[in-house]
Design a protein that fits this description.
- The complex is a heterodimer of chains A (78) and B (346).
- Chain A is an all-alpha fold and 78 residues long.
- Chain A has one domain (6-77): Orthogonal Bundle (Non-ribosomal Peptide Synthetase Peptidyl Carrier Protein, Chain A).
- Helices cover 51% and strands 0% of the residues of chain A.
- By secondary structure, chain B is an alpha/beta fold.
- Chain B has 2 domains: 13-191, Peroxisomal Thiolase, Chain A, domain 1 (3-Layer(aba) Sandwich), CATH 3.40.47.10; 199-345, Peroxisomal Thiolase, Chain A, domain 1 (3-Layer(aba) Sandwich), CATH 3.40.47.10.
- Chain B has helices at residues 29-36, 41-46, 67-82, 106-113, 130-143, 172-180, 238-260, 277-286, 298-301, 308-316, and strands at residues 13-21, 27-28, 51-52, 92-96, 121-125, 148-155, 184-191, 199-208, 217-219, 234-236, 269-271, 293-294, 325-332, 337-345.
- In chain B, the strands form 3 sheets. Chain B has a 10-stranded mixed β-sheet, sandwiched between helices. A two-stranded antiparallel sheet of chain B has the order 2-3. In chain B, strands 9-10 form a two-stranded antiparallel ribbon.
- In chain B, strand 13 and strand 14 form a beta hairpin.
- Chain B is globular and about 55 Å long.
- Mean pLDDT of chain B is 95; it is low at 2-7.
- The chains are: A mainly alpha (78), B alpha/beta (346).
- Chain A binds chain B through residues 16-18, 36, 38-48, 50-51, 55, 57-59, 62, and chain B through 36-39, 41-42, 45-46, 165, 167-170, 172, 175-176, 179, 238-239.
């Protein structure tokens, strides 16, 4: 499953993690403002990315403030 | 054992020895991460625990040992360390949240393996406070006239954790357990006189305080009629635990000190609750400052539930000099049990 498109990435995060994310508006919502977002959901996101063949260092993910910034890291690390 | 002329205070119970058992080789965060399909970095950052032990293969899930195996090993070590044989042990109390079978009890199985017979054997169903509950009951039995007994605590995770590849879709309340827990067992011999390590159990706090409060930890089980149920087997309200356990730990500390008429300067060692390396550090930060040195094990053992206080006391022993005092704090978040104990080397 390719996550190169921001919309596909947002839908995947919404559907697989079961988080209430508006697509595409939720891309710029602060992660801390996403309903239910916490460190365990970050772990689930890490697992989701690794499943999809994307290994982004967690310390870089912690620098991201929104899902758009997470997606930028996904593309950066390939 | 016979009562000598220098017998200890009749109202005092003594801890003569400990024994512990951890299965297999330590499982590091790289291996645990592999089990969950993630890199170890998240575990390093958010949990801090470096290793844990599993009595099952973290790659295949094959179960290699039982709770009875671990408890019998720990119990035998404790009896050997106290220099006591089966004929000297007059009761067994075993605490666990994860018995091998509902019946027979794991406590009876362990008694059998240790060569014990014709004695009362109790099993306590408990979570993180079980070791303290076992100590509380064991102390009562000694005060009631028994001369020596074995108290044990242990837990195994194979029914609840397994190699998973659906980490991303696991409820967070379930997932958190995979990065916290490990397998282990511990034991202690209690005596009515100073024997072995000559440690007086000065106080035991064991108080359920969960009235009207939702559970912080759920551990369910399925039977014949509901084995296809989709209800969760395992759920931890980690946010409630993060909020309440530090405050409860402070309350337990003051309760124990107040009951004994001790102050912070009177304790040499502190055994704090062992949830995870990071969470224990947060709890310790909230405790009032004092000279006591921390004795923790969770970074190396993971959260082993009912085994933890035994693992901590075993680490305390080499440092515990005559006249030293130690305080252990324990919170069971399943339904909020405040527990702890005070030790003094005589």
């Amino acid at each position: 499953m390719g996550l190169d498109s921001l919309d596909v990435f947002l839908r995947t995060v919404r559907d697989d993690l079961g988080l209430d994310i508006a697509v595409p508006e939720g891309a710029d919502t602060a992660l801390g403002d996403l309903p239910g977002w916490d460190s365990l959901n970050l772990l689930r996101l890490v697992a989701l990315l690794e499943e999809s063949g994307h290994r982004v260092p967690v310390h870089r993910l912690l620098e991201a403030c929104s899902l758009r910034e997470v997606h930028t890291l996904v593309k950066e690390y390939g | 054992m016979t009562r000598g002329p220098d017998a200890g205070d009749r109202a005092t119970v003594y801890l003569a020895s400990t024994g512990t058992a951890l299965p297999g080789e330590p499982v590091d965060n790289t291996a645990l991460g592999r089990l969950l399909g993630v890199s170890e970095e998240w575990i390093d950052i958010f949990v801090g625990t470096r290793t844990r032990h599993f009595g099952w293969d973290p790659v295949t899930g094959e179960v290699r040992g039982s709770l009875a195996d671990l408890c019998a090993e720990a119990g035998a070590r404790a009896m050997d360390a106290a220099g006591l044989g089966p004929a000297d042990i007059e009761f067994v109390v075993l605490a666990t949240a994860t018995p091998d079978t509902l019946l027979p009890t794991t406590a009876c199985e362990v008694a059998d393996r240790l060569g014990l017979d014709h004695l009362p054997v109790y099993q306590i169903q408990a979570g993180c406070s079980g070791a303290v509950q076992a100590l509380d009951l064991g102390r009562t039995l000694v005060l009631g006239g028994r001369r020596a007994g074995l108290v044990l605590g242990g837990d195994v995770t194979h029914r609840f954790l397994a190699p998973r590849r659906d980490t991303a879709r696991m409820p967070t309340e379930e997932l958190v357990n995979h990065v916290l827990f490990g397998d282990g067992a511990g034991a202690a011999v209690l005596t009515d006189e100073p024997e072995g390590e000559r440690i007086a159990v000065r106080s035991v706090l064991n108080s359920w305080t969960g009235r009207g409060r939702p559970p912080g930890q759920l551990l369910d089980w399925y039977g014949t009629t509901d084995r296809d149920s989709q209800r969760p087997m395992l759920a931890e309200d980690y946010k409630a635990i993060e909020e309440h356990v530090p405050a409860l730990s402070v309350e337990i500390l003051w309760d124990l000190l107040g009951g004994l008429g001790w102050g912070l300067d009177d304790i040499d060692f502190l055994l704090p609750p062992q949830l995870s390396e990071r969470m224990t550090a947060r709890i310790v930060e909230r405790l009032p400052a004092g000279p006591a040195r921390e004795v923790s094990c969770v970074a190396e053992t993971g959260n082993t539930g009912n085994a933890l206080p035994f693992l901590q006391v075993e680490r305390l022993l080499p440092q515990f000099a005559a006249g030293n005092r130690a305080l252990a704090l324990c919170v069971e978040s399943s339904r909020w049990i405040r527990a702890g104990f005070a030790l003094e080397k005589v």
